Amino acid sequence: MSQFVGDFEAKTDAKGRIVVPAAFKREFEAQQVASLIVSKDLYEKCLCVYTEMQWTQIISDLRSRLNLYDRQHVQLLREYQRYTAQVDIDSVGRILIPRRLLSLVGECKVVTLLGVGTHIELWDADNYASAAMEPQDLARLAQSILGSDVDCSSF
User: Fold this and answer.
1) What is the mean pLDDT of the segment spanning 140-150?
2) pLDDT tens digit string along 80-134?
3) DSSP codes, 92-155
4) Which residues of 133-154 are buried (b: 16+ CB within 10 A; e: fewer)?
5) DSSP string covering 1-55, please?
6) pTM of the full predicted structure?
7) Cα angle for residues 20, 23, 24 (degrees, 5° grid)
């Protein structure tokens, strides 16, 4: 299973290509990943980048929870996949993000690629900076979700 960690800034070129950070590129090479799935995040103004294997698992899980004879369920599946594209990693380690997807998350002249374990989030750098939580807010959130017995001093 993939393990993406860290955040990295990158510039997009005129065509919307982004150089994949070396840490992420090593992970892709170790898994022999040649193409990725890019999808609009449901909750945040960012894109999510998955390996094909991860995306297959996500869609399989989603389909297992849906009744394909229920109009709302079909609409959820359709809308979830509407803002999705398959992208290849080129020979120099770049990915070309379609403009229609980049435009959903901001100006994207400079982006931040954030490893969140199983996948990568792609943010407009300004939006990423403004979405950051204050350390004490993160500690309160962790405590409210994980319980009062959690030591939040490391946050």
Assistant:
1) 83
2) 999 999 999 999 999 999 999 999 999 899 999 999 999 999 999 999 999 999 9
3) TSEEE--HHHHHHH---SEEEEEEEESSEEEEEHHHHHHHPPPHHHHHHHHHHHH-TTS-GGG-
4) eeeeeebeeeeeeeeeeeeeee
5) ---EEEEEEEEB-TT-EEEPPHHHHHHHHHTT--EEEEEE-SSSSSEEEEEHHHH
6) 0.89
7) 50
